[in-house]
Design brief:
The protein is α+β, with helices and mostly antiparallel strands. It folds into 3 domains: about 25-210, Sirohaem synthase, central domain (Double Stranded RNA Binding Domain, 2-Layer Sandwich), CATH 3.30.160; about 215-335, no CATH class; about 360-435. Helix content is about 60%, strand content about 15%. It has 9 helices and 9 strands. The chain has a 9-stranded mixed β-sheet, with helices on both faces. Strand 3 and strand 4 form a beta hairpin. The longest helix is centred in the last third of the chain and has 95 residues, at about 300-395. The radius of gyration is 46 Å and the shape is rod-shaped. The relative contact order is 0.07.
Length: about 450
């Protein structure tokens, strides 16, 4: 082995290893208030968000410089700011870990630690926004009637994650300021276990909202697809009526429908695939929470799979209907092309028959012309013979001019007929050889 030879490392190996550590879990203590937002963002908006975050860092006097990586996180004492970049959205998480005790868990939020007006200037469109309050569980645990006023007396969804080591209450509704609420009561989880559980709860709500983005498109497109389905049925019936006068109109309508279907597919394909991916991630996070039921209330998994899964299936059904319509339009177009090809074949057959009839007429005319040609040529040749006999008789040759002229007539007729037939036969042979070559 060559001593100078070294291993060749993949250029992305380090980045691939670091990707597993790009979004680490945080340790969370009780008495913590968290506010989380998810904002739809393209690359230009993400750059503007990074600049706006840098302005916050400067205003708070933190020692951090915003990078282009997936995660930017910095802390000022007990206040933590975390910005994560995802494929089509950016998440902002503000954590106030002062471990303060509040009479009402949502009287104060982590947003109170931000400079006034800074968050309102953050670029991007808010999809998910909610507060999370983490407190120690009391003994005994609060009843649903005691928790319900914290959620404006809305219907509660409660669960006991990690086999009863904590309780999570929410309403999956909007409250003051347009924010949702989650109340987490810790019974026996360590700060790292609590951090992982809270992060999974945050991701459940974030991916729930992202998965629902495809539902409005599916609902709006449903009557359009029903109308196009009826239109395709009508076109197929017209095609079955064998009315050749409609061919151009049917083909034009099929082309317009196909173009419209492809436009809808191009517009919705990414959203449907993203909806499916977000829904799968959300279900994974729910599995990791390992929920138990709380006093007969729906768990988060039961509530979300009952309400969210049908919406996700609506998006998938819409995509399947688009694919089905595209396939049916293609089949109808194939039938239409087959019908046009058969019509063309019939026209060609009729044209060939007409050409064959004309050829026969032309052949008969040709034979007639050949007969007339034989007579005409023979007439001129006999005339030439007569001139020759007259010239010979004038020079003193003694013979019967009429007899010689009469004898020459059949000879000339036969010779002219033979030559013309030979020429005609030669042309036929050349034509056969040309057809054989083709």
């Amino acid at each position: 082995m060559n001593e100078n030879q070294t291993l060749e490392w993949h250029p992305q190996r380090g980045a691939l290893i670091n990707e597993l550590h790009s979004r680490p879990f945080r340790a969370i203590n009780t008495g913590t208030s968290i506010t989380h937002l998810a904002l739809l963002s393209d690359e230009s908006i993400k750059e503007a968000q990074a600049q706006h975050l840098q302005s916050l860092i400067q205003e708070l006097g933190a020692d951090h410089s915003v990078s282009s990586g997936a995660l930017n996180s910095f802390s000022i004492g007990s206040f933590d700011v975390r910005m994560e970049r995802h494929l089509e959205f950016t998440s902002l998480t503000f954590t106030d870990g002062t471990q303060n005790t509040l009479e009402q868990p949502f009287d104060r939020t982590a947003l109170d630690r931000l400079p006034q007006g800074w968050l309102e200037k953050m670029p991007g469109t808010v999809v998910a926004a909610f507060h999370v309050r983490v407190d120690d569980a009391t003994d005994p645990l609060p009843t649903p009637n005691e928790v319900r006023p914290l959620f404006n007396d809305q219907m509660l969804v409660g669960s006991s994650p990690l086999h009863g080591q904590a309780q999570v209450w929410t309403s999956f509704r909007l409250h003051e300021g347009g924010y949702g609420r989650f109340l987490v009561l810790n019974r026996s989880l360590s700060v790292t276990q609590l951090g992982r559980m809270v992060q999974r709860t945050i991701e459940v709500e974030t991916y729930r909202m992202m998965a629902l983005l495809g539902f409005p498109d599916a609902r709006a497109l449903s009557p359009v697809l029903a109308q196009m389905d009826n239109q395709l049925v009508a076109l197929t019936n017209r095609l079955a009526d064998n009315n050749d006068d409609d061919d151009a109109s049917i083909l034009r309508e099929l082309t317009d429908m196909a173009a419209s279907i492809e436009a809808h597919r191009a517009r919705t394909s990414f959203r449907v695939n993203a909806t499916r991916a977000y829904h799968d991630i959300m279900l994974t996070r729910l599995d990791e929470l390992r929920e138990d039921e709380v006093l007969g209330h729906l768990t988060m998994r039961e509530f979300l799979t009952r309400r969210l899964s049908p919406a996700v299936r609506s998006s998938e059904t819409m995509q399947k209907r688009l694919d089905d319509l595209s396939t049916r339009i293609h089949r109808t177009s194939v039938m239409m092309r087959t019908r046009v090809e058969l019509a063309i074949q019939n026209q060609n057959r009729e044209l060939l028959g007409s050409m064959d009839r004309r050829s026969k007429v032309q052949l008969m005319m040709q034979h007639t012309v050949e007969g007339l040609s034989v007579a005409a040529i023979s007439y001129y040749l006999v005339g030439l013979v007569k001139y020759l006999t007259d010239a010979a008789a004038s020079s003193g040759v003694q013979f019967d001019k009429s007899l010689v002229t009469g004898i020459s007539v059949p000879i000339i007729l036969g010779s002219v007929f033979y030559v013309i037939r030979r020429i005609h036969s030669r042309f036929h042979e050349l034509a056969k050889e040309e057809r054989g070559a083709n």
